[in-house]
Design brief:
Length: 323
């Protein structure tokens, strides 16, 4: 079968298409024919081995896993003798975490991994595209803080893969949502339900005097210090992007401030929490309370081109790959 293989850290050029043996499920595993996968921010950072301390988990000199890709949607083609919760033909959506493996035609996963049945009203592209953004958002909005009705929520990077999900989920939770994005994406963010949209190219956020209960910097581009004046007393600044300066602030500043800075490596949480969130994502999709924004779709053979486009920073929503 065709699969993407990587032998080192670097740019899109490290991603190579190769023929490898089709996997066979063990007694507790399911064999999934992958119909669609996505290129997340986490995928590109794992490809580059950034931040460098992340290599403690990924591999010091080169990636431990040969086939990248963390999210997928597909059909179960075979099951092991001990599997009772899935059957052949089931349509599923799944996260593989640090084990990766989604940039391929097939993958074997334990039946108790982060896998749920896919709603019948959702395409494979829509399913895989929303997994990372919605699961990350739910992890922050339930475990790092609790979104309450009528709270003011600011989403930076509101037109990205996490941002488009965060806007919708914050609204579903009853928040008053303000999104920050570029001029060309303002209409998209408004259509997703944002009450207000600020243009980052015009510095509209930093110029404003409005205060928020929660600031969710989905792309790691805001300064915590510059943003503090926009937080209400006991407000929370959330980021999924770890930098050295963020680490220092988490240790030496946030514990002693009324306004808290919080970070979470959502893919490293316990599987039961990840399954909890993916079930909720599935239910949002089934009830049409959440929609996936898809920018471009690439075949697996153009994986380098797809990663280059994501690296450009021009995408809105999600980039999908079809094996």
């Amino acid at each position: 079968m065709k699969a993407v293989q990587v032998s080192g850290y670097g740019g899109p050029e490290v991603l190579k298409i190769k023929e490898i043996p089709k996997p066979t499920p063990k007694s507790n595993e399911i064999l999934i024919k992958i119909e669609a996968t996505s290129i997340t921010a986490a995928s590109t950072m794992m490809r580059m081995g950034k931040p460098k301390f992340g290599r403690l988990f990924l591999g010091l000199r080169k990636p431990k896993v040969k086939t990248p890709g963390t999210d997928l949607a597909g059909i179960i083609e075979a099951i092991g003798s001990e599997v009772v919760n899935f059957k052949i033909g089931d349509q599923i959506m799944a996260e593989t975490g640090l084990n990766c493996g989604a940039y391929a035609k097939y993958i074997c996963l334990p039946s108790d991994a982060v896998i749920v049945h896919r709603p019948t009203n959702i395409s494979p592209e829509e399913a895989t595209g929303i997994i990372d953004g919605a699961s990350t958002t739910l992890a922050f909005f339930t475990d790092q803080t609790t979104i309450k009705r009528d709270q003011r929520i600011l989403i930076n990077g509101a037109s990205g893969s996490i941002g488009t999900a965060a806007v919708q989920i914050a609204k579903e939770m009853g928040g008053e949502v303000t999104g920050i994005c570029s001029t060309k994406n303002k209409a998209l963010v408004q259509d997703l339900g944002a009450d207000y949209v600020l243009d980052y190219t015009k510095n509209e956020f930093l110029k404003s005097k409005k205060k928020y209960d929660v600031i969710f910097d989905t792309v790691g581009k805001l300064s915590y210090f510059k943003s503090k004046k926009h937080l209400k007393s006991n407000g929370v600044f959330l980021t999924p992007v770890m930098t050295f300066s963020t680490l220092i602030l988490l240790i030496f500043v946030s514990p002693f401030s009324k306004n808290k800075l919080k970070f979470a490596a959502t893919g490293l949480r316990k599987e039961e929490l990840q399954i909890r969130d993916l079930i909720r994502v599935r239910d949002f999709l089934a009830s049409e309370k959440l929609k996936t924004v898809i920018d471009r779709v690439y075949p697996l053979e153009k994986i380098q081109e797809a990663h280059s486009y994501v690296d450009s920073g021009r995408k809105k929503g999600n980039v999908i790959v079809i094996p």
